[in-house]
Amino acid sequence: MRLTFAAAAVAAALASPADAQTDPLPPRSELYTIEYLVGPDGRLLHVLKGIDDKQQCENIDTGSISTRNIGANGARLVSDALVVSPQGTFNYYLWIVEKSGIHTVFRAGYIVRNCSLTETRSQQSYYSGDNRYRQAASAYNALLRTGLAAP
User: Fold this and answer.
1) 3-class DSSP assignment, residue 84
2) Are strands 103-113 and 44-50 parallel, antiparallel or unpaired?
3) What sign has the CA pseudo-torsion 106, 44, 76, 60?
């Protein structure tokens, strides 16, 4: 199954105006399809690919995505979820504990270009201190509720 849509919809789904740490998003004039590929951990990933990108990749480099690097950098994945919004957008929500003990919560999307997978993050927040687990859990659940909500 292939879904095609304008990048403006993708940008609106991935970006948050209050989030200054969002990675660069795709050009708004570009059209994308949703492709499905098996990630490094054997899970199916929903990724964006430019509609004009006809390159057939024997292998896709996943070395820059969070779930690929968690074990290598000493971090631990607490939770992740794929949420399909009422508008039909696919978003991943992740909660990671860094090696330093800092909890990181964010929304992610994936784009394939030149046989390489890029992760875009938005709504990223960090928690440290004695109450970090409770704060991160609250933030993660709030993100999930936002992703499941209408408009």
Assistant:
1) strand
2) parallel
3) negative
